[in-house]
Amino acid sequence: MPSARPRPSAATRNRVARAAGDLGAAAVQQMETDHEWYRSLSAENRSWVGLVAQAGITSFLDWFGGDQAQPAVTADVSTLMVRVAVPVTHGRTFNPFGSVGAGFARAMRPPPPGESLQRTDTQFGIEVGGGTTTRLTDRIGLRTAATYYKVLGPPGNFHGAPGSGIVYTNVLREFSLIRVSVGIDIRLSGSKTGQSQ
């Protein structure tokens, strides 16, 4: 059995946490240098990509400063959402909007070390976000959006029957998801609102 990885000292964790902003800036600068597709993005779309990069750095910091001896649990996670988009302004070309939603996250994973049964966990969560629709023609637009989803379920693990000593890993504990999407918005003839496809 592999030995537990020693936990970094408090001073090291603090130094890494203080460097989080520099790490995010360095990641964006590297994309600017290495990737033509990033350089061609608008300032707004670059900001969405930067948010995704910063979220990944934040997740790393949570792991680095937490209990690294805890075995990693991987799972296939799907979400079922109901969301409402609210227009912010109506323009001829750009139509920014905000969105709110609610729904369920469902995780399926094989049993990790110490457990023998495959688990399927389902928990409720909420979503907020926004984006913009860029009108290409009177009826067709390009919709870009970014959303943040957060599970509101129990923060800890699930315990078995009293006295059994069994603890089931909560796969969706503190689960969150940042989603960036691009789609086509089609405005039906005679309608002033678009329908996302």
Strands, helices and their partners?
Layout: H1 10-18, H2 20-34, H3 36-39, H4 43-64, E1 76-87, E2 94-109, E3 119-135, E4 140-151, E5 158-159, E6 167-168, E7 176-187, E8 194-196
Antiparallel strand pairs: 1-2, 2-3, 3-4, 4-7, 5-6, 7-8
Model description:
- With 197 residues, the chain is of the alpha+beta class.
- The protein folds into two domains: 7-70, no CATH class; 71-197, Beta Barrel (Porin).
- 25% of the residues lie in helices and 39% in strands.
- The protein has four helices and eight strands.
- It has helices at 10-18, 20-34, 36-39, 43-64, and strands spanning 76-87, 94-109, 119-135, 140-151, 158-159, 167-168, 176-187, 194-196.
- A six-stranded antiparallel beta sheet has the order 1-2-3-4-7-8.
- A hairpin with a 4-residue loop joins strand 3 and strand 4.
- It is flat and about 65 Å long.
- The relative contact order is 0.13.
- The model is unreliable at 190-197 (pLDDT under 50).
Defining traits:
six-stranded antiparallel β-sheet, single chain, two-stranded antiparallel sheet, 2 domains, 8 strands, alpha+beta, 197 residues, Porin, disordered C terminus, 4 helices
